[in-house]
Amino acid sequence: MGSFFPLISRLASSSKHYASRALRSSTAFPPLRSLSTTSSSSSSSDRFRSWSRSLLPFAIAGTAAFALSLDLRPTPSSCDSGFGHHVGRKGSTEILVQGSHTAVPKEFIDELRAICESNMTLDYDERYFHGNPQNSFHKAVNIPDVIVYPRSQDDVQKIIKTCNKFKIPIVPYGGATSIEGHTLAPYGGVCIDLSLMKKIKALHVRDMDVVVEPGIGWIELNEYLKPYGLFFPLDPGPGATIGGMCATRCSGSLAVRYGTMRENVINLQVVLGNGDVIKTGSRARKSAAGYDLARLMIGSEGTLGVITEVTLRLQKLPQHSVVAMCNFKTIKDAADVAIATMLSGIQVSRVELLDEVQMKAINVANGKNLPEVPTLMFEFIGTEAYAREQTQLVQKIVSEHNGSDFTFVEDPDAKMELWKIRKEALWACFAMAPGFEAMTTDVCVPLSRLAECISKSKQLLDASTLLCTVIAHAGDGNFHALVLFDPSDEDQRQEAERLNHFIVHTALSMEGTCTGEHGVGTGKMKYLEQELGIGSLRTMKRIKSALDPNNIMNPGKLIPPHVCI
């Protein structure tokens, strides 16, 4: 009996809630005026139905007490169909992200200005720049209404609370190197540019970890760490920031040795959509305490909160390294060597594959004279003796798989130059096709399927009229195809999209993923149901709805718009 009266109280409260909502709703029930207006020819039964429907809200209120057992409570669908965009739906070939837009009120701008003072702008050029990412072919019909530049977690918290109060969309913005439309603002709103939050807050040399703000770049961080004999091992595109790297769960060429962002973050501080600040863990290297919220936030692409502090795991700078290159007649032979190397147990730190078209682009852009054939690049680290021993073992594997011209360098400047041209591969491609845009795929398959997946994809790419190159982080089954097309030519864009679809579906058919490291954004949403299943997507949607009930955090990204709960 002790639990009976609280139950009655809750049911009575539910009755008032549902009655109030039913009376307010203009979608669940038509207005009473329209229900009572009937033509003279209407039958008495029609009039009765109209009259009875007008009493339905009160009937719901009266029967809410039975809702727990009969499940009569209304459960409105929560999905993005009302937002007016179709990008991300299954089978979509659109790249222009549609979105409804409502002008932000002056009161909201005034409150933001009180928080940010001079660190905000309404300038059109700035808003256009932030709303059109330079490295992505994805576009949106709208741009942000305002750009803010917080200097602290406290600023971010106040900004988000204000946005939540007015239900204004938020787009977090880091180094803007993402390529799947992560920083588009299809509904306008506020772009939170974190570039002023770039402090290194604490370095713990003996613990080999560092606490940083999200706006610092990985290159800047490593310059700071070098005198201490430490480095942060993830190396995505130049310009990427730590916050964005967490948000997209990025990796890079060193992931084959050190793992992705998921394995290299110890703790996060995140501001949620209601302004709450959460800490996902401690500085301990391992913990079994509670849900793994850090891993939930890593890869959430700003849809659950804004990352304001990151504790990173660091590594010792290698004592010695060797960089090797070798050539192959076919891309399958090159991929087979990458697989054989990993299966041998050799601890490589990088295994990069470049096809003959990419090698030609590198020569054109850098004035080199490298062989224009499928090429593998390796890096071996450790003591001088160990690195050289690993180099010789791989050289033997290469010779057994039709490889040739195996060369290696140990001079620091020579090694840096080789990795520099690899890092600038995308820009080398643009040098071959000025004015073109690149559709960049990013799939990953089980290592044993890599050679087959690349070979199938390469056949289609070579047959296309477009300029296409292949680059792979071959040691972990991840590869990219860069498809260059004229953005003013719709036929070329459709051809690029066709190639992209083929590569992604080929990877999915081999138990792979539609994105190994670039993330989902708007570009890869349409593939998620095939890869993960609708149940997983609905679970993601429920998490999003629980943490961001007003859907202000980077709306229109990651979760396909057709997913409803």
Give the arrangement of secondary structure elements.
Elements: H1 4-24, H2 32-36, H3 44-54, H4 56-63, H5 67-70, E1 96-97, H6 106-116, E2 120-121, H7 124-131, E3 139-140, E4 146-148, H8 153-166, E5 170-173, E6 190-193, E7 200-204, E8 209-212, H9 218-225, E9 230-231, H10 242-248, H11 255-258, H12 261-264, E10 265-272, E11 277-279, H13 293-297, E12 305-313, E13 315-316, E14 320-327, H14 331-343, E15 348-354, H15 356-366, E16 375-382, H16 384-399, E17 404-409, H17 412-423, H18 425-432, E18 437-440, E19 443-444, H19 450-463, E20 467-473, E21 478-485, H20 490-509, H21 528-532, H22 534-547
Parallel strand pairs: 1-3, 4-6, 5-6
Antiparallel strand pairs: 2-4, 7-8, 8-12, 9-13, 10-11, 10-12, 14-16, 14-17, 15-16, 15-20, 18-21, 19-21, 20-21
Main location: mitochondrion
GO molecular function, one term: D-lactate dehydrogenase (NAD+) activity
InterPro entries: FAD-bd_oxidored_4_C (IPR004113), FAD-bd_PCMH (IPR016166), FAD-bd_PCMH-like_sf (IPR036318), FAD-bd_PCMH_sub2 (IPR016169), FAD-linked_Oxase-like_C (IPR016164), Oxid_FAD_bind_N (IPR006094), Vanillyl_alc_oxidase_C-sub2 (IPR016171)
